[in-house]
Design goal:
Distance between the termini: 31 Å
Strand order of the largest sheet: 2-1-3-4-5
Oligomer: single chain
Strand content: 15-25%
Helix content: 10-25%
Number of helices: 3
Shape: globular
Structural class: alpha/beta
Length: 123
């Protein structure tokens, strides 16, 4: 399935290649060329992820924030440190940005519009 031309996408990077590769694979299969947004929360905020808020230095009004600029149509994330940022985008966009989380967010189904859990490898 391909999304319409001009669909803007972000991938929230957690710093772990396994998380990023999964997001990139799904985005590319949808015909998207996503913009990578690196999440580098300070240790205090990283410790409280996925339950806590985003790092205040990542306020979307700050030009260096990974949330700065026009919000995308769709955003992909994976890894617990990205969950607060995914929720923040959902709130900032007032539901206009479709949010996708590829893994168990550990905070319930409200973390994203779509959550994909990999099937465990049972014998």
């Amino acid at each position: 399935m391909m999304l319409p031309s001009g669909t803007r996408a972000w991938i929230l990077q957690s710093g772990k290649i396994g998380h990023e590769v999964n997001c990139m694979g799904v985005a590319h299969e949808l015909g998207l060329d996503p913009e990578m947004r690196r999440i580098e929360a300070r240790p205090f905020f990283e410790f409280f992820a996925p339950w806590g808020p985003i790092d205040p230095r990542d306020n979307p009004a700050h030009p260096a924030s990974p949330l700065h600029g026009p919000l995308p149509d769709i955003v992909f994330a994976s890894g617990r440190t990205t969950v607060p940022y995914l929720r923040a985008i959902k709130k900032l966009s007032r539901g206009r940005t479709f949010t996708v989380f590829l893994q168990d967010p550990r905070v319930g189904t409200s973390a994203a519009d779509l959550i994909h859990l990999p099937r465990p490898p049972y014998p």
